[in-house]
Amino acid sequence: MAITYDWNCKTVDVMLQEDGQTDVVYNVHWIVSGVSDTKDPKGEFYKATSIGTQTVTYVSGSPFIPFADLTNDEIVAWTKAAMDAASAGSVAALEAGIASQIDLLINPVSETKTIS
Fold first, then answer.
1. What average pLDDT does the chain have?
2. Stretch 105-115: mean pLDDT, rounded?
3. C-alpha–C-alpha distance, residues 78 and 62, integer Å
4. How distant, in Å, are the alpha carbons of 7, 19, 31, 107 from that of 39?
5. Under a CB-based contact definition with an 8 Å cutoff, are residues 59 and 52 in contact?
6. Is there a contact between 27 and 53 (Cβ–Cβ < 8 Å)?
7. 7 burial type by CB count under 10 A (0-12 exposed, 13-18 middle, 19+ buried)
């Protein structure tokens, strides 16, 4: 089973002014979705999502990208780097968790039932 991951890091918190810059990103609200290449009985691909936040740090004097010029890909790269710096392998662990969620959808080990 192959899984495609999509990182959405388009929502951020910014400091209005910091080190002579405006709209400096310091916190990223991320959504990571995984979609399997396996379909369920209804013909839909299995998918799972995880959400969270990650702080990122602007280092004074380093290259600065104005907010209007930022892309999701740039913020994803910052987010992944900050996650792995905080705990090595955390990006891989997050994606492995999503893969496990999808595997449990494909191969459930429990279900909810109601007594009549």
1. 95
2. 95
3. 13
4. 21, 50, 22, 12
5. no
6. yes
7. buried
Q: Are strands 45-55 and 3-18 parallel, antiparallel or unpaired?
A: unpaired
User: Which residues, in sequence order, are CB contacts of 75 under 8 Å at separation 6+?
Assistant: 9, 10, 12, 25, 28
pLDDT-based confidence at 43, cuts 50/70/90? very high
- Count CA atoms closer than 13 A to 45's CA, side-chain side: 13
**What residues contact 92, with CB distance under 8 A and at least 6 apart?**
none
Q: Provide the 10 A C-beta neighbour count for residue 80.
A: 18
Residue 60 has pLDDT above 90, yes or no: no
